[in-house]
Every structure is written in C-alpha cells, then in structure tokens.
Protein 1
Amino acid sequence: SRRSVTPNSRTNSGSDYEEDRGRVRVAVRLRPKNAEDIILDSDFADCVELQPELKRLKLRKNNWTSESYRFDEVFTETASQKRVYEVVAKPVVESVLNGYSGTVMAYGQTGTGKTYTLGKLGKDDASERGIMARALEDILASVSASDCVEVSYFQLYMECIQDLLAPEKINIPINEDPKTGEISLPGASVVKVQNLDQFSQLLQIGEANRHAANTKLNTESSRSHAILMVYIRRSVHEKVEDGITSWEKVPRTTLSGSNAIPLIRKSKLLIVDLAGSERIDKSGSEGHLLEEAKFINLSLTSLGKCINALAENSPHIPLRDSKLTRLLRDSFGGSARTSLIITIGPSARHYAETTSSVMFGQRAIKIVNMVKLKEE
Ligand code: ADP
C-alpha cells in the first residue's frame, strides 16, 4: 500500500530525520550576527545558547537560563546551505519523488533568514543556494525525460492569493476536490520546468513581482507568505520487495515496446516562506495596517492553532479557518512528510520573539501522528 515505508527512508539512515513518517520534523537555524547585532548588543550576552551535538538549545535572559529544548537538528550560525538542505529538505524531496506529498516551511521573525534559507538563488556562488533551488536541482536530476515537473509560485497576503508569475491574477480561489480532498488553484500559472537556469529565472521573476506588488500595496514582503508549489508527474513501475512498495523510474528504453504499463504517479512539494512571526504593534497600527495585522494573524494564528490541535491529538483540527491552513491540508495528512525550520537571531533585543518561535517549534515537534487526521 502507499502507506508502507519506502526503501528510501530505510536506506538513507544516519540521521534521526529518516526515522518515522507522520511526524513534523523541526530544526532551528541561528543567523550569524549582523552589524546591528554587534553594535546594539555589545553590552548584552546572546539570548541563545546552542548545543548542536545534543540537538538542543537554551534561551538566556540576564542571569537566567531556560531548560534546554530538543529539536531534530540545531544549526549554528556556521551551518552551510548545503547541510541545511540535506538535513531539512532532502528527505522530503526524496519522499516526493516516491509519490508522497511533502512540505518544507520556514517560520521566524523577519530578518532571521527564512528567505535566505529557502529562496536564495546563489547566482554568483552556487554554495549559497537555498532549499528551493537545491530541491529543484535534485528533482530535475532524478526524473526521466518522460516525466513532468511544473511549478506555481504565489503569495498569500490578507487572505488573497496572488500569482507571482502572472501578477495581474490577484484573487485566485482555492479548489478542493470533493472526492479526493485534493487542493488546486484554478487559474494560477503552472510552468513546466526543464532545467535549473530556467527555474532560477522564474524565481527571480516571482521575487520581482512580489516586490512590485508589495510596493504598490505599501507593505513589506515580510508580511506575506510566499509559496512555491512543485508538481511532479512520473511514469513509474511499482516494485514490491519484502512487502515494501516503491516506485522505480521507468528506464527510457522500456517506455515504448515494454509490456509493463507504467503507472502515472503524481505528487506535490510545497515550500513555504511564512510571513514574519513578529506581532505587529497594534498601538501603531491603524486602518489598513490594523486590518493587515488581523489578516496576517488569521493565517499564522490558524497555523498555530492547527499545530496545537495536532500536537494535542485533538479530534478537531481547524484546517478550514484560513487560506494558509487550507493550502497546507495535505501537509498534515497521513502519508505526508513535513519539515519545519525555525529561524532565529542571536540578539538579546529580540528575546521575546525568539522565545515565541522556539516554542512554536516545540509544539510542532510534538505532532507524532498525522495519520488519524480528522477535520470538520
Ligand atoms: P527573513 O526572510 O526571515 O526576513 P532574510 O532571509 O531576508 O530574513 O535574512 C535577513 C538578512 O540576513 C539577509 O541579508 C540575509 O542574507 C542574511 N542572512 C540570513 N541568514 C543568514 C545566514 N545563515 N548566513 C548569512 N547571512 C544570512
């Protein structure tokens, strides 16, 4: 059955990340100090203490140090983009290539490295590439010529979905197949990706459109969620070994003239650069800004509520409360594989925001059984 463990998740051991499906894997990444941190924080100790070998971190304020919190991985400020990709996203990408849906999300305060971690293109230096580019690189290298890789790229702002590849499309509806529950975005651009250069160009266009749209709306991109959806359609032969089902790439030569009819396997990868998790100061927010704060809170707050409900094994998961959680419905389904990366800064000035992000990660790591997902 499709629920069985794939050989991939067995053979690529060596990391706790590979252990079990159905659990949200959560990593924390600390951003290196920037000039502002160095100047403004010179009188303070850092507010986080990492214990990477134990995969733990502690929070610090004045003379007080918290208990240590365990994650699936704790990345210090020197962790490379490559390592972050390999630990956080690669298992998800491999799972998607095997027909499961997968999600990689970044959560954290604005300026802590969400976009750096996910969207960095690394045009001049390939070692700087983020998760999006590396994921596409791996996917394109794994599929055969007869397979199809397509992407959509959009932003969710004030509960409106705007196409970042065709910015005139500003209010794309979410469609839910009544039978399968599958989520789609009718009308959103879906672009076939042939190679990494072309993908980088798409991402660049998307970023430029995001910037232009947000300038027009007089807001910052940190207030919208940017979502890359990758659709993969593969011709595969089912292989059963030791009761474990997996799919093999159909060798190009057997595509015509072979007796075995390949199955068409569809899967989807979501890479989500969430809006900044900091609370907008209500006292300073009026009119449009206040409205915006409420809406941003709607999607992020409902994500938090769903994570809490899942962590507590609650019978009711309020996935329908916002567009973000509706889009992430598959991410919390039984066979999905989901990774969350929490980005934090070192600065004592942001102790409250850092604590809140760490706590969000601690709740998400408690989600152990998504198979029994129910929703109302
Ligand atoms: P966010 O998306 O969370 O608002 P960004 O990704 O835009 O944050 O990062 C803010 C700044 O910090 C950018 O200039 C980015 O290049 C830099 N930065 C973030 N994380 C790292 C890192 N791990 N190493 C080097 N620079 C980083």
Protein 2
Amino acid sequence: MRIAMIGTGYVGLVSGACFADFGHDVTCVDKDEKKIAALHRGEIPIYEPGLDELVATNVKAKRLDFTTDLSKPVADADAVFIAVGTPSRRGDGHADLSYVYAAAKEIARSLSGFTVVVTKSTVPVGTGDEVERIIRETNPNADVVVASNPEFLREGAAIRDFKFPDRVVVGTSDERGRKVMGDIYRPLSLNQAPLMFTERRTAEMIKYAANAFLATKITFINEIADLSEKAGANVQEVARGIGLDNRIGTKFLHAGPGFGGSCFPKDTKALIKIAQDYDVSLRIVESVLAVNENRKRAMARKVSQALGGNLRGKTVAVLGLTFKPDTDDMRDAPSIPLVTGLIDMGAKVKAFDPVGMEQAKSELPDITYCEDAYSCAQGADALVIVTEWVQFRALDLDRLKTVMAQPVVVDLRNIYRPEEMEAAGFTYDSIGRPPVQ
Ligand code: NAD
C-alpha cells in the first residue's frame, strides 16, 4: 500500500515509520521545513526510544521518505493519514481543528484515483463529516472515503504500542474503505491485534472516552492517595489491592503529581466541550479535570510544607521535567505549574532532566539547568522527584546527602521506600504513604 502521512510529529513519524516497517511505501509530510530537513539529514526531531533505528532502516530500504510538499504523495496514495496537532483552542478549550481542516483542503486538491483519507489526529465526534464536506466542496470529483482511525500509542513506548496494540479502531462503514484499512493493518494480525470496525462517529468517540477513562483512573487514585496520607494507609498497597481485581486492573493506578502531557488535559477539556454542545453534562470528567488542575499547584505547597511552610530564600532541586520518562515532550507537564508555584513562593529552582531540558527552557526560562542529578542537588534545601526517569531510581543517597544543604526529599512518584530514605538520614515525603513510625 502507498501511504501519505500528513503531519510528522510524535504520532505521524512513529506511525509512518511503523507502517513502512510493515512493508508499505510511506511518505511523511510536514509543513515544518526544519523538521523535514533534519529528517533528510538522518536526525530525529523528537526523542522516542528506538525511533532513530526504525527510521534509518526504512529510509535505507526506500520504503520511507519525507517532504514538505504533499501533492505527489497524496496523488499516489491509497490512504492519506491526517496526523496534525489538535491542541486546545485558546480561550475556550475546544479542540482546535484548524490544522485538520487546512490539511483536508490541501489534500483534496491533490487527490487522484480512489483514496481513503483517514483522521489519525484525536478529533471531536463529527469532525470526519466536516473533513468529508471540505474535500467534496474543494474537489467534487474526488473518489474518496473518509475514515477515522484514532491512535492510542503512548510516548516513550510508542513503537511497541503501535506494533503490538491492544486494538486498532477503524471508523468507516464503506466497504472499499474497510478493505484498504484492513490491508494496511493486516501485518498486525500476526500480533493478535483485534481490528475493530465501527461507524466513523463511534470511532471518534472511542478515543476521547478512552482518554477520559484513563484520566479518571489516575485522578481517582490520586484522591485516594490524599486520603491515605491523612488516614495512615499506604496508597501503593491500596492500588495493588484493588488493581488485582480483574474488573479494575493494575494499570494507571500510580498516585503522583497529577496527569499532564499532550493528550489527557486537552482531550478531557475537549470532551467536556463536545458534551456541552450536545447539552449533556459529563460531571465525572469535569471533576477529574478540576481536581487535576488543583493538584498540580498543590504539589508546590507540599514541597513548601516539607521545608516548614516557607520557601523564601530556599533552593529547590527538581529532578525530571518532562510529563513522563522516555520522552522530551513538555506539553502540559506537571513540572510547569509545580516549578512556577515554587518560584511564586520565593524559592530558587534548579532542575535536571535527561532529555527534556531544551524543550523546557522556553516554558521555564527562570530556573537554573544542571548537568546531572548531583549538580542539581548541590546546595539544595529540598530535592523533588517529579518524573520517574530510570536515572533517578538508584541515586547514590550518601552522595546526595553530602551535596545537599538539607537532606529533604519529596518524591512525587513514590520511587523510593520511606524506610530506606529514613535509614539514609533523609526527611522524606511521598504521595499517599504514611511516614515511617
Ligand atoms: P505534533 O505537534 O507532534 O505533530 C503535528 C505535526 O503536524 C507538526 O509537526 C506540524 O508541523 C504538522 N502540521 C500541522 N499542519 C500541517 C499541514 N497542514 N501539513 C503538514 N503538516 C502539518 O502532534 P502529535 O503529538 O503527533 O499529535 C498529533 C495528533 O495525534 C493530535 O491530534 C493528538 O491528540 C493525537 N495523539 C497524540 C498522541 C501522543 O502521544 N502525542 C497519542 C495519540 C494521539
């Protein structure tokens, strides 16, 4: 199959490279000339484990290439995937569909022969109808089917998620569309991935419902963590105790500083807005969003409490800035409101992140960036673990204690054991776990 991937970001580049690896001929298109020039030089514009080798192998095999001009790849394609961004619209929180609609218009002008146009971007219910309308208005002769194929990959594990998905959802009731999508995803049948066909609107809804459910799970355990902390229970054991029930499941039950990233915050917001347009109130999702927003700044107060309630003149070292490990993505990272809160309370902030510091500099310009965990901890009154990078899981505690001004650690990811930290001479606070008796 010949595939054109419009938008070569976290989703487009991973999906394009994986489709090429399945044996399809893929051209990834992006408006960002710098991105395409970097890819032509063999550089990967994002950090995603394994992506450099995957791209290099498929470029070498001539199954994957890159361009800023969509006309030829779209004209030649059996399927054109739209994988452009759908950020929160400034001011009202609706999904900003301007990039999707602009791409649809451009695609329409270049279509030739039967083509399936597929929205891979996360888009509100009914967007496929509008994409179809735009294409038919721009190019009334186009022989086109518009399908929805939401993406569920997670940054940091994107290639594995793409190649071994729990399911692939394809929204189209058109037989020719189903055939093309079935051919594209056939290699995954070897990996036992169920290919689920639905109506287009249902597929669009599945993506938002999935993200809202996962965000709810995280927020639920975060609230149980707060209660556990006050009531003397251990949230990690509570999570395991409920998660081993198959009806609940152990995943997404890790208490922490609140969810962030490029999807959950914007997608929960957009789902609430979609529901309002249909006069439906999604009170659970509304609460999830509100609770999560409060939580992120509350983490700064937690750090302040660990230092006796006053951060003025104190230095706080922050380990981890990206919203999760194994990505350089800083979009809506919980570190941003945390660090801003610390600065507002008068603290000086130093930070280290294994790959996210370049991206972080534009979001957090007023902090000192360090080259490793120990230089970050040097002279600090408290050390805060924000992202559970593997590099932070086995720190040399003696060395840490020696370089810090005060041995205070606030572990927002529960990666250390309270007994171990206490034995090493630290005042240690974490999420939802009682202090050592
Ligand atoms: P991104 O910002 O990394 O990439 C989007 C790319 O599209 C950018 O490089 C941009 O330059 C390009 N672009 C915009 N308009 C274009 C046009 N008209 N022609 C060509 N290129 C254009 O975004 P992302 O994180 O890859 O997300 C893309 C979509 O996938 C979003 O809807 C997102 O919600 C969804 N999604 C993201 C993830 C994730 O983990 N990042 C997971 C699942 C779904």
